[in-house]
Design a protein that fits this description.
Layout: H1 3-25, H2 32-68, E1 69-70, E2 79-86, E3 89-96, E4 113-118, E5 124-127, E6 130-133, E7 136-140, E8 146-153, E9 166-170, E10 187-190, E11 193-197, E12 202-203, E13 207-213, E14 228-233, E15 239-242, E16 251-255, E17 260-270, E18 273-284
Parallel strand pairs: 12-18
Antiparallel strand pairs: 1-15, 2-3, 3-7, 4-5, 4-8, 6-7, 8-9, 10-11, 11-13, 13-16, 14-15, 14-17, 17-18
Length: 285
């Protein structure tokens, strides 16, 4: 048989195989590779889309969480604070790392939340000084003699900031720092309004849930939220300020940077009065 006939028979055989494949599978064998590639590309694109959605959701959750948990991340501050007390007047000076006074963003209706606690953590003040001039905020507040730690809670525009304790001495009588004792009284009453802090299991570096039972009462909105929680460790060095998880709840989430004893001041407004409920918790390693 000549070469020409062999080639012709080969072509007929290949065409027959292709025809049988098409009838059995309903696919074009010449296009199947392209189809598989298109299917793979579609799956890959979907995977990328799902991954992007997960990243966006996580970013949104992180941004939302940052609204409720303030100043709990260690970073070098670009704003210096200096707190002084004279003639029942507290003065807070602010200076940016370049020397100029920083611009402050409004957070929870105020440019500045000023927290002052005595060294033994028995006295607590949450104040809102007003701007007297650029870089200077003041407020009148009589204080008992003793040693205090002041935390300037601000959000400077475009600058990193971490509140640090400012020691303020009032009079000559010094107040020593104390060791906090663990307590089991989770229900506190102030002026007829009772609040219970539900059982807390706190571990350093993990998200800790703080849920407050209002015993049928609903607090008024105060500074843009149903409540505020300020936390300071027994050494009066670590400062944590958190807000409710949502606009209509009295549950909070906080992160504790290290193990130890901490004091909590939970603020809730009933009627025209803001009541402060103190609790002491232990944070495990």
């Amino acid at each position: 048989m000549s070469i020409k006939k062999w080639v012709s028979l080969g072509i007929i055989y290949v065409v027959a195989v292709f025809a049988v494949f098409s009838v059995v599978t309903g696919q074009n064998p010449l296009a199947s590779g392209e189809m598989e590639h298109d299917e793979h590309s579609g799956e890959e694109a979907q995977n990328h889309e799902d991954h992007d959605k997960e990243d966006n959701q996580k970013e949104a959750e992180d941004m939302d969480h940052s609204k409720h948990d303030h100043h709990n991340h260690q970073e070098e501050s670009e704003v210096k604070t200096n707190v002084t007390y004279n003639d029942e007047k507290i003065s807070i000076e602010l200076e940016g790392h370049e020397g100029a006074a920083p611009e402050l963003a409004v957070e929870h209706e105020k440019e500045m939340h000023f927290i002052m606690v005595s060294n033994d953590l028995e006295e607590y003040y949450h104040l809102h000084p007003e701007k007297e001039q650029e870089g200077l905020y003041t407020i009148n507040q009589p204080l008992n003699a003793g040693t205090y730690q002041a935390f300037v809670d601000i959000a400077p525009e475009g600058k990193a900031y971490q509140p640090a304790p400012n020691t303020v001495q009032v009079g000559t009588s010094e107040t020593n720092k104390t060791s906090l004792e663990k307590e089991d009284n989770w229900t506190k009453e102030m002026d007829g309004k009772t609040v219970t802090l539900e059982d807390v299991e706190a571990t350093a570096g993990e998200e800790v849930s703080l849920v407050f039972d209002m015993h049928g009462e609903k607090p008024e909105h105060h500074l843009g939220a149903l409540g505020h929680v300020v936390i300071v460790d027994e050494g009066a060095e670590q400062y944590i300020h958190v807000h409710p998880d949502s606009e209509d709840t009295t549950s909070f989430h906080a992160h504790f940077p290290k193990p130890g004893m901490y004091k909590i001041w939970a603020e809730f407004k009933f009627g025209d009065e803001v009541h402060t409920y103190p609790f002491i918790i232990e944070v495990a390693e």
